[in-house]
């Protein structure tokens, strides 16, 4: 049985037209109308889980891509037959139908896959639509008919000429390939059809706070009234943009324990407000001075040479296809062995310089010093800014999160490199390629290629926007995960003390699982975007090839024109792929750098005034004048505190924990600034808000209660009190702090490493190193915060003498919980809830029988000592208290 070729032609036209109409109809598919769920009010059974039908998205997209691939291969066979065997008759129905059918089928299946991904990103459930099922059913019916009819229609031979019956040979294996691809397409459709009708069934627990679980299918059907009553998400954000600067939050929310007392805590993920491209651009422009070597003429010259090489590379890329055409012309002429060598050598030379190892390698070598300058400048900028931030900020931040932000923030330099060396040349290559298409192939092909480019860029931008949201969430989870990791390592001893290994492992495992879930979504989104882009480019390649073949089917130069077309199309698709990659990469780099920009925008709460002067200390008189202070603006840490420490006077602060004692030292050291209406702190009559922080802290030495040492040698930590100090000065300070002999007992002496935060030393040894550091500094004012709290009784007696020698002739303020250590203080202030409630010498306060006397009696009783009145302490009548007592 033999059928007319027109049968196949009209069947394919009908198939193509029907599929394209259904595809265009799918563009109008919107979100389903919301319906109010009904419930059986008489039912006494409460469901704990609900069956949810989830479409097999990955399988559907994969099968649609295979179908599009079969159409592309069919069209490629047609093009190959025309180009390499010169067999093409567009006037015959069989050829024409096959060419148009391949294009339409590729557009239909590729377009459906891309449309489905775009619609899904916008919340439209296209995979569940009846229209999609009808589309696949129609495709299955038509392809099944074609598979049956193709062997019966003799379309693969030109009509034989009666005078010369052997003039036209058969095409070869092309009919078998077309038939095989049709059968394969039928098999794929047979798999795809049930995949649409039988989605996966997932059982999910019902949230008691919601009417139904928020799934891919049911979330689109929840009515607005029900959604309005559902619990809203937390409004807590990692950071929001307000004006020109955006404060960086100190840390992510503290994980809360999971329900049921599980050791695995639930992680509260921060929600970010995405900045616009313009906002990011404005913020990035402030970093240009740190990226461009303004002060180095040599580096600027190197950068200009790199830009020149970039321009030369664009010319080389444009010349390669034409030089290849010249090689083909030389090969087609007689005596090709003599004429082909010059154009061939030119072609090889252009290929060498146009390859990644050519001009790009030379440019990369010259650009390396410039990139090093950028790395150095940005790293130093971030480091200096971190150190300039106030103590208030540092007490709120998490070390692990900051390290993660700095690590990811290194992508800033990559943004500028992408813009200069990738985006600009890519746009230039694209413009040149389109112009050459217009000049060499005419307006029809140029318009089609331009439309394909616009569709490609639009699709990439649309899918990248969706991927950017996922990437921003992934970065937030990554920062939180690293914070948990670092926090556990910094608190290693506490973990051991409380057998917290399993708990910390669970915390990290939970956070790591969340991160990997986010990472998988980002990777899937990236691969789906690549698949969609490839489908669209395949459509452009097939249609463009057929247009070239139609235009040159009867010309002797069809091979030459097609080779030039393929070469230039490859050079055009290269920039297109680069544009999509650049858009994605720049978006990802912006996401990575957002938090570093937030960090750099974080203002220091304590700043020197423009006209700040150096502090001049003559007598060291300290004065607090009606000081009121609050850390958070809600609870008050100090209330109207006033006192004066005269020249060489010693002041002791006592009271319960949280009564405001440490706040006095922090304010004096200017870790926080007072508001103008909250009183004043003066040293020798100079308001410390009017002097530079450097000069203020140069005049004050402090021995903190928690002595933190650098992970370096003992000698380095003592010498930190006076940079550039000699070995003799360091040893003298150690002797005064009663630790010199102990240091010499170590095998490495002063070169002994103290470990992270000084963990290799005992508490008393760390405190004596801190005292030696302050002795070496020799400041005018001394602050002691429980300076002897970690010392044994024997060492305390020795160190008390060292402290007395240190404070001799210097004004000093000390905090003590062991009241026996302040017996010789000139004045003692007793704090309670941020106020001075008692003041006087030790004897006066004990005799008064107030709060201090009670504290003294409790300590003496706990120590098993008598409550005898201590020996009279030396007093200085010049010590005056401005308190109301």
UniProtKB/TrEMBL annotation:
Gene3D superfamilies: ABC transporter type 1, transmembrane domain, P-loop containing nucleotide triphosphate hydrolases
Annotated transmembrane regions: 7-29, 59-84, 99-119, 131-156, 176-198, 301-324, 344-366, 418-441, 447-465, 531-550, 562-583
Places the protein is found: Membrane
Domain ABC transporter, first and last residues per copy: 622-858
Region feature (Disordered): 860-885
InterPro entries assigned to the protein according to its UniProt record, in alphabetical order: AAA+_ATPase (IPR003593), ABC1_TM_dom (IPR011527), ABC1_TM_sf (IPR036640), ABC_transporter-like_ATP-bd (IPR003439), ABC_transporter-like_CS (IPR017871), P-loop_NTPase (IPR027417), Type_1_exporter (IPR039421)
Sorted UniProt keywords: ATP-binding, Membrane, Nucleotide-binding, Transmembrane, Transmembrane helix, Transport
Composition-biased stretches (Polar residues): 875-885
Keyword field contains ATP-binding: yes
Gene Ontology MF term list: ABC-type transporter activity; ATP binding; ATP hydrolysis activity
Entry's family note: Belongs to the ABC transporter superfamily. ABCB family. Heavy Metal importer (TC 3.A.1.210) subfamily.
Protein name: ABC transporter
């Amino acid at each position: 049985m033999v059928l007319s070729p027109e049968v196949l032609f009209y069947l394919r036209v009908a198939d193509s037209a029907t599929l394209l109409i259904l595809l265009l109809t799918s563009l109008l598919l919107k979100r389903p109308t919301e319906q109010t769920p009904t419930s059986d009010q008489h039912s006494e059974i409460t469901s704990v889980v609900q069956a949810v039908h989830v479409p097999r998205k990955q399988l559907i997209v994969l099968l649609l891509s295979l179908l599009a691939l079969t159409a592309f291969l069919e069209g490629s066979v047609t093009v190959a037959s025309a180009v390499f065997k010169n067999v093409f008759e567009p006037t015959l129905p069989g050829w024409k139908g096959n060419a148009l059918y391949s294009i339409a089928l590729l557009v239909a299946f590729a377009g459906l896959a891309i449309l489905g991904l775009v619609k899904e990103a916008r919340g439209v459930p296209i995979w569940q639509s009846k229209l999609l099922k009808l589309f696949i059913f129609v495709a299955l019916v038509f392809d099944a008919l074609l598979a049956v009819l193709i062997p019966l229609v003799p379309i693969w031979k030109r009509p034989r000429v009666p005078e010369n019956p052997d003039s036209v040979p058969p095409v070869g294996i092309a009919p078998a390939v077309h038939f095989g691809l049709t059968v394969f397409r039928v098999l794929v459709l047979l798999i795809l059809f049930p995949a649409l009708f039988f989605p996966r069934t997932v059982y999910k627990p019902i949230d008691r706070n919601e009417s139904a679980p928020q799934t891919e299918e049911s979330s689109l059907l929840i009515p607005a009234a029900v959604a309005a009553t559902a619990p809203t998400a937390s409004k807590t954000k990692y950071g929001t943009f307000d004006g020109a600067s955006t404060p960086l939050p100190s840390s992510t929310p503290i994980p809360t324990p999971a329900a049921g007392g599980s050791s695995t805590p639930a992680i509260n993920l921060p929600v970010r407000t995405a900045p616009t491209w313009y906002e990011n651009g404005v913020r990035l422009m402030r970093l240009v001075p740190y990226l461009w070597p303004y002060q180095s003429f040599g580096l600027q010259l190197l950068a200009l040479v790199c830009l020149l090489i970039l321009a030369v590379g664009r010319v080389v890329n444009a010349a390669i296809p034409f030089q290849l055409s010249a090689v083909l012309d030389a090969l087609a002429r007689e005596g090709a062995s003599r004429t082909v060598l010059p154009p061939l050598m030119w072609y090889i030379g252009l290929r060498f310089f146009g390859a990644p190892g050519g001009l790009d390698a030379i440019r990369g070598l010259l650009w390396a010093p410039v990139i090093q300058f950028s790395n150095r400048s940005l790293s130093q900028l971030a480091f200096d800014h971190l150190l300039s931030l106030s103590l208030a900020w540092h007490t709120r931040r998490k070390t692990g999160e900051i390290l993660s932000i700095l690590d990811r923030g290194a992508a800033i330099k990559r943004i500028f490199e992408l813009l200069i060396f990738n985006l600009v040349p890519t746009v230039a290559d694209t413009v040149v390629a389109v112009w050459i298409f217009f000049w060499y192939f005419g307006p029809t092909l140029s318009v089609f290629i331009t439309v394909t480019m616009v569709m490609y860029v639009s699709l990439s931008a649309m899918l990248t926007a969706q991927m950017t949201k996922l990437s921003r969430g992934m970065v937030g989870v990554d920062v939180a995960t690293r914070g948990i990791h670092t926090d556990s390592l910094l608190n290693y001893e506490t973990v051991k003390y409380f057998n917290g290994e399993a708990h910390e492992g669970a915390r990290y495992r939970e956070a790591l699982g969340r991160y990997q879930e986010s990472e998988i979504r980002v990777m899937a989104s990236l691969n789906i975007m690549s698949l969609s882009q490839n489908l669209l480019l395949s459509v452009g390649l097939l249609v463009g090839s057929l247009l070239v073949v139609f235009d040159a089917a009867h010309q002797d130069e069809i091979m030459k024109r097609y080779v030039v077309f393929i070469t230039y199309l490859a050079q055009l698709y290269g920039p297109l792929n680069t544009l999509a990659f650049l858009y994605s990469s720049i978006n990802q780099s912006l996401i990575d750098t957002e938090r570093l920009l937030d960090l750099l925008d974080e203002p220091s709460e304590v700043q020197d005034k423009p006209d700040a002067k150096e502090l001049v200390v003559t007598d060291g008189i300290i004065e607090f004048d009606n000081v009121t202070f609050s850390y958070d603006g809600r609870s008050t840490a100090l209330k109207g505190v006033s006192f004066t420490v005269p020249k060489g006077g010693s002041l002791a602060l006592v009271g319960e924990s949280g009564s405001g004692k440490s706040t006095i030292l922090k304010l004096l050291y200017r870790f926080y600034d007072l508001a103008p209406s909250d009183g004043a702190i003066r040293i020798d009559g100079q308001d410390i808000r009017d002097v530079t922080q450097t000069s203020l802290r140069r005049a004050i030495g402090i021995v903190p209660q928690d002595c933190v040492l650098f992970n370096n040698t003992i000698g380095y930590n003592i010498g930190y009190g006076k940079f550039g100090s000699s070995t003799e000065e360091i040893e003298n300070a150690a002797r005064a702090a009663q630790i010199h002999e102990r240091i010499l007992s170590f095998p490495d002496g002063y070169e002994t490493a103290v470990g992270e935060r000084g963990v290799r030393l005992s508490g008393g040894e760390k405190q004596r190193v801190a005292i030696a550091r302050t002795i070496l500094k020799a400041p005018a004012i001394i602050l002691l915060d429980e300076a002897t709290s970690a010392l044994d009784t024997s060492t305390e007696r020795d160190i008390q003498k060292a402290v007395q020698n240190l404070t001799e002739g210097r004004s000093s303020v000390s905090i003590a919980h062991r009241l026996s250590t302040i017996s010789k203080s000139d004045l003692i202030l007793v704090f309670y809830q941020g106020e001075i409630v008692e003041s006087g010498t030790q004897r006066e306060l004990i005799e008064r029988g107030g709060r201090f006397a009670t504290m003294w009696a409790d300590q003496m009783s706990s120590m098993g000592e008598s409550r005898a009145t201590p020996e009279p302490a030396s007093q200085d009548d010049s010590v005056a208290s401005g308190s109301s007592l």
